[in-house]
Amino acid sequence: MKQSEFLELKHFTNHKNIGLIPATAESREWLETLKQNECVNFKKVESRDLALHGAFFGMLGFIHDRLTPAFKKQIAKPKFYLFLKDLAKEYDVLYTFKDGTEHKEYKSISFAKMNNTKFKEYFNNQLIFIYEDLLFPLGQEYLMDEINKEFERVFSKLI
Q1: How is residue 95 annotated by DSSP?
Q2: From 37, 87, 110, 147, which residue has the greatest number of CB atoms within 10 Å?
């Protein structure tokens, strides 16, 4: 087994927070291939909870459903997520045309790019942004209590 393949696997257990112990025969065999005192780098990988990801998009739908009909007519629910990314400037400008139009690449929140901890932080920041830069300018700050209650209901089970 190549080191790069091994590092993607979960073959060690934490022993009293002082060392890693091989947890499988395969990991023990791999360790035997190492030279004495050879240094090996590991990358800690934290998985992302699919339920949390789904709850995030569910919350965006919940919020979109409560916005004014005029807003919903302009920004369809499937495009609301991209609208928020654009509003928050969560993108890189890849090219600016002569007329000022920008070709953008939106920053990803994919499972590969963001672990659970960073995703929770991202979502909390999104809520603050939604309140300050969307609800207040639309005159719908009264929705904040309803959104907070829904957030607590949904996320109390997940976070």
Answers
A1: E
A2: 147
pLDDT tens-digit map of 51-90: 888 888 999 999 999 999 999 999 999 999 999 999 889 8
CA distance 122 to 15: 32
In the 8-state DSSP scheme, what is residue 37?
A: T
Interior angle at CA 156, CA 154 and CA 157, nearest 5: 80
Q: Give the three-class secondary structure for 20.
A: strand
Q: What is the pLDDT of residue 36?
A: 84
Q: Which long-range contacts (CB under 8 A, 24 or more apart) does 89-92 make?
A: none
Tokens representing residue 26 in the block? 């395969």
**Cβ atoms within 10 Å, residue 118:** 13
Parse the chain into domains and list their residue ranges: 1-45, 50-155
> What's the predicted TM-score (pTM) here?
0.66
Nearest to 152 by CA among 59, 53, 47: 59
What is the rounded distance in angstroms from the CA atom of residue 84 to the CA atom of residue 97? 23
Q: Rounded distance, CA 18 to CA 10, Å?
A: 18
Residue that is written with structure tokens 């709850």 in the block:
55
